[in-house]
Design brief:
By secondary structure, this protein is α/β, with parallel strands linked by helices. It is 45% helix and 11% strand. It is built from 14 helices and nine strands. The protein is globular, with a radius of gyration of 23 Å.
Amino acid sequence: MKMVVGVMVLGQLLTRLLLAAHAGDRLAAARRILRDVPLIDGHNDLPWNIRKFLKNQLRDFRFEDLRDAHPWARSAWSHTDLRRLKDGMVAAQFWSAYVPCSSQYLDSVQLALEQIDLIRRLVNKHPQNMVLVTTAAGIEIAHKEGRLASLIGVEGGHAVGNSLAVLRMLYELGARYLTLTHTCNTPWADCSTVDEPGQVPHVGGLSNFGKSVVLEMNRLGMMVDLSHVSVPTMLDAMDASRAPVIFSHSSAHALCNSSRNVPDHALRFLARNGGIVMVSFYPHFISCGEKSTLQDVATHINHIRKVAGIDHIGIGAGYDGINLTPVGLEDVSKYPDLFAELLARGWSEKDVQKLAGLNLIRVFKAVEQVRDRMAGEGIEPLEEEIPRDDVIGRLYCRYPIMPPTIP
């Protein structure tokens, strides 16, 4: 009897060793893949944390390693530094120039400019490790150089102040996507909260001006980001856009019915549009609760692959903008473990490469091609008439600025 028990224990031990060896092989394979193709993450909110914690002061910011630095080490919102980005083999990161909804109609444009300035200063402070990138080709070049391709995405359509001129200037400063809404409606687009029970749509999707925003983004070569928007806004934007769109940090509505996720019929439309959903890691979008796992994230990725196709998925974790993370994906160092899990589920190396970054590069290049084609067609910037009774004009009429008295 003792011999039988001993054989069973030995068998279990050998099985565990074999599984561990296979897991190690898959992790090594994932790392090899990420050396060959760039891992691109669609959304990271570190810039807003720098604003919250340091008032945008970078002089004493030690981005090399924040794991033992105050206040980052004790914050549930902190998941990112250069050391962990390197461990996670991240090749390209879209940094979010986030603008809170409370600034709408007030100082939203100024806040967007300040956050773009912060991102550019952060990159310039670390030239050996980071480089500002504004093109798809730039991502590929930075990957070969071993530097983190740093891209800018503006989060919140209210950041343009209802002005196509401001949109164009944000592009000139390096912004390569605009999230059409955040958690508030704009005068020209509905956000995802209007899809929740008891809520009433403000626009019913995109207004005519909202469609003009999308077309001007096409003309510029700026990606249209539909994370945070309502389902009618998603559909209107995909219908209006000449270029593929992105969801920079969203997941599958069929698995978690958060209004922030993408329903299956929108995923099928996305496949026809040629766009991409970059899957968020936030537990409330993954399990609709406070706890989720790496395996749960992999299940969302598999679902989007099944509905939209392998060419239409990517990664947009949302680190530093979430205070809860899945078990196994605690910070930016854990990406290889996710790809190893997908290899264990039967994914081919080619498909993992697409998820990691090739899909986003394809979309980015398609957006650039649409820009070039529209330029070739002689399409000029969309013009808008500045209203005569705008706020500044009214203030000037009421409180005219008098010239200084010359002594």
